[in-house]
Design brief:
Blueprint: H1 2-15, H2 17-45, E1 57-66, E2 69-73, H3 79-87, E3 91-100, E4 104-108, E5 111-115, E6 118-121, H4 125-128, E7 133-135, E8 147-151, H5 152-159, E9 168-171, E10 175-183, E11 196-199, H6 200-205, E12 226-231, H7 237-251, E13 258-263, H8 277-306, H9 308-320, H10 325-362, H11 373-398, H12 403-408, H13 415-451, E14 461-465, H14 474-482, E15 487-493, E16 507-509, E17 521-525, H15 529-532, E18 537-540, E19 552-556, H16 557-563, E20 572-575, E21 578-586, E22 601-605, E23 612-617, H17 620-634, E24 643-644, H18 645-652, H19 654-688, H20 690-698, H21 703-737, H22 748-774, H23 778-783
């Protein structure tokens, strides 16, 4: 019986190839889109879940509350981890990380590689985290402070096929390091990424003490290190956070810091203050995938129902020959299963073609190979879900036809079934409208980000790091660059304005209350920096370059506000152990993602402690060539690396830009499948009302009247869908926008555009079949006995 049903299913599908083709194509498109989206979701949810200690690993965040404003930082002082392990029984192990953002030249027997973003880690790194050490001792990965561990790919680049262990590598023509271990390349779904690891003990050993802090392990003011704790099973993260807070406040008088612990598995999708940053995007993608799959299934149901009258005689004949309803349901479910399998096969082919483009858009490295158990399980689940959702209702409706009614030509689909089909159309277009509105809001927010004033000029400004003998001849570098007429300004600083990484809590000021305190970004700049970047001073003046500037400081508006300093010009402000006079207040500007609020920043003057050059140009290409020529004059070994500030800005919002493109693609797919479903229902309605149309034409109805008659009910359904979609999409996108500290609003123009677009596309879809029915010859319909 099973194989008999399959033969019947294939025969029926082949007999009506156009119907089968539309159905398979619609289902395949929906399945392919939903599986690709769910693979993306699955990858996002998998971050940091491969560590066997994962449930007990926590990241330490530092929180500061000042005048009701809360700031949360992902970095902590160096001592908090070691003291926590010493004094808190629940802390089983601690690992500190510190990224080295400088480019380092690796030299092995004349083979040179310029590498960025190495990482200093504590010695328990490989026992706490599951990063397999292929060679070396995970219990003691760094025998000395001159040891280093390389990833497999980095070792291959540096040594080729040679045995890497024990090899000595010279860094920056100064320090020699011995390779003590090889670790497998870090998986893409890890928030910790590097290809070179150095011992954290080296940072401790080379710490430069000052008058206030004598060692890294006693420096409570430098919030520069990421701290991870491995807690005993069952330990309370909240209690450990309170204990860390108590330890710090006892060690540093007046410290206004409160520590919280964040699970390792939340670091990728949640911001440090617990906001659902990426998690909301995951939910939106999940719901969109389900919505597109439902739209495709509804499309199948509508098309199957539209063919019901053509299958009626078949059902009647089979019932009169003894087939019961159960057997008929089995036949139609088999037909649905065959259709679903064909759709999945086509969907897999579509995914194979689309995956390179999809990976480029999403920034992932996903695969749709059948030997991937995740792909097989996900595709199989979608297949079963599609079969059940799309197959059961048509099978039940078709098997319910009464033979006597079919034979007498009195077949009629009940009003209840008609209502259900209308509900399906409303559901389709509601989901499509929600997806379209969401896509438009994402696009509006990205345009808002790109056009919002950052508070400084980023156009035609590029930066490059000083290198080699440039440090000894900063004035010469400045003068040689300014000789080129394409370069309008040159400035120096010790950090990148687009990502100020340094932070400290070592601050004091006039009128500071005992419970006041917050983290501040210190940045060293020269006297031309503010002018080069068009940073606006709202009070006071800038640096002049005189020796007196060593005792001066400039704050941003947020610092003045958080400190509660009134009339700040002339008042004292202590940064680290240096007491300075406030000579200016710079207007707030964005130096990180607009998702985040503007943070406190302090500028001090320096012409020696700098490593980054800012070049403003009216002819960028020529200016870059001049800078490269100058670079090669002072650096014979290092390649010239530079970056434009506007390009760095775009990198900050790469994920949002990818999301926008993906949503545009999936919204087009959703509306196309919905229009197919609408086409099916229009076909069904026109065939059901063909005699009515013919009679109206005989009585004098015009084509326009017939078109209006057939279209108005569908227009009403689409309007209902839009009314349902509007509040749902507004609520969802308003919550998504709340993840940005600065954002646009969900404007009424978005809803107007969506409504007009959906109505227009729906009308164009209907018009083909409606006009065809209106132009049909009434004599043929009235002569027909159907």
């Amino acid at each position: 019986m099973f194989f008999h049903n399959i033969r019947l299913a294939l025969r029926n599908l082949f007999r009506d190839r156009v119907y089968a083709g539309i159905n398979v194509a619609g289902l395949a498109l929906g399945i392919a889109a939903s599986v690709l989206m769910l693979l993306w979701v699955q990858d996002e949810l998998s971050f940091d879940r491969f560590h066997h200690n994962g449930p007990n690993i926590y990241h330490v965040n530092a929180n500061f509350i000042n005048s009701g404003n809360k700031m949360t930082w992902e970095t902590t002082p160096g001592p908090i981890g070691t003291r926590g392990k010493q004094e808190i029984p629940a802390v089983h192990e601690v690992v500190r990380l510190n990224r080295d953002w400088n480019a380092v030249l690796f030299n092995y027997n004349g083979r040179e590689i310029l590498h960025e973003r190495g990482m200093y880690v504590d010695e328990h790194f490989f026992t706490v985290f599951d990063f397999p050490l292929l060679k070396g001792n995970p219990q003691k990965p760094f025998p000395t402070t001159q040891s280093m561990v390389l990833t497999e790919s980095m070792a291959k680049k540096l040594f080729g096929d040679e045995e890497p262990l024990g090899k000595t590598v010279r860094l920056d023509d100064k320090d020699e390091f011995t390779v003590s271990g090889i670790v497998a390349d870090f998986p893409a779904n890890s928030t910790i990424q590097t290809s070179v690891l150095y011992p954290f003990a080296r940072l401790v050993e080379h710490y430069q003490p000052n008058d206030y802090w004598k060692s890294l392990e006693t420096d409570w003011g430098n919030y520069h290190y990421q701290t991870y704790l491995l807690l005993d099973p069952g330990a309370s993260p909240a209690k450990v956070g309170e204990q860390l807070t108590s330890i710090h406040q006892k060690a540093q008088d007046g410290a206004n810091v409160h520590y919280t612990l964040q699970p390792l598995t939340q670091l990728h999708l949640y911001s440090r203050d617990g906001q659902e940053a990426g998690m909301q995007t995951v939910r939106i993608f999940s719901l969109t995938a389900i919505a597109i799959l439902l739209i495709a299934c509804i499309n199948y149901v509508n098309l199957a129902t539209a063919r019901s009258t053509k299958r009626a005689k078949e059902v009647g004949v089979r019932k009169t020959t003894g087939a019961d309803r159960g057997r008929l349901v089995g036949q139609f479910l088999t037909e649905s299963a065959v259709m679903s399998i064909l759709a999945v096969a086509l969907a897999f082919f579509v995914m194979q073609l689309a995956i390179p483009f999809y990976n480029t858009l999403s920034g992932k490295e996903l695969s749709v190979r059948l030997d991937n158990p995740q792909v097989t399980m996900l595709t199989g689940s979608v297949l079963v879900l599609t079969w059940l959702v799309s197959g059961f209702y048509p099978a039940w409706v078709l098997s319910a036809f009464k033979p006597i009614d079919v034979i007498r030509g009195k077949l009629a689909i009940s009003g209840g079934n008609s209502t259900f089909r209308q509900v399906l159309v409303v559901t389709q277009f509601t989901l499509s409208a929600i997806i379209i509105i969401g896509t438009l809001v994402v696009g509006n927010q990205l345009r808002y980000i790109r056009t919002k004033s950052l508070g400084f000029n980023k156009e035609n400004v590029f930066t490059f790091a000083l290198g080699g003998d440039m440090f000894k001849n900063i004035d010469g570098v400045r003068n040689e660059l300014k000789q080129d007429p394409s370069i309008t300004a040159v400035s120096f600083a010790n950090q990148n304005l687009m990502s100020i990484g340094a932070s400290t809590g070592d601050t004091d000021w006039e009128g500071k209350a005992p419970d006041q305190g917050f983290i501040i970004h210190p940045m060293g700049v020269d006297e031309t920096f503010f002018k080069t970047l068009n940073l606006e001073l709202v009070q006071g003046r800038g640096f002049t370059g005189s020796p007196a500037d060593t005792a001066h400081i400039i704050l941003n508006e947020t610092t003045v506000k958080n400190a509660g300093i009134k009339d700040p010009i002339g008042k004292s402000f202590t940064l680290w152990d240096t007491k300075a006079t406030i000579i200016g207040v710079v207007k707030d500007f964005h130096h990180s993602s607009i998702r985040n609020k503007i943070e406190p920043t302090a500028f001090f003057h320096t012409n020696s402690w700098v490593w980054l050059v800012y070049v403003k140009a009216n002819d960028p290409a020529r200016a870059v060539a001049t800078a490269e020529k100058l670079w090669k004059k002072y650096n014979t070994k290092y390649p010239f690396n530079y970056s434009f500030m506007d390009a760095e800005f775009d990198k900050m919002y790469r994920n949002e830009a990818r999301m926008e493109k993906l949503f545009y693609a999936f919204s087009i797919i959703a509306i196309c499948i919905s229009c197919l479903g609408l086409f099916g229902l229009v076909t069904f309605t026109a065939s059901q009302r063909i005699k009515e149309i013919s009679i109206r034409k005989v009585l004098g109805a015009s084509v326009q009247q017939i078109v209006t008659l057939l279209s108005r009910d569908f227009i009403r359904l689409i309007l209902i869908a839009f009314v349902l979609a509007a509040p749902v999409s507004w609520y969802a996108m308003d919550r998504w926008l709340a993840n940005f500290a600065y954002h646009t609003e969900v404007s009424w123009q978005v809803f107007v555009f969506t409504g007009v677009a959906v109505l227009t596309l729906a009308f164009l879809t209907m018009s083909v079949q409606v006009i065809r029915a209106a132009l049909s010859n009434p004599a043929n319909s009235l002569r027909n006995n159907e």
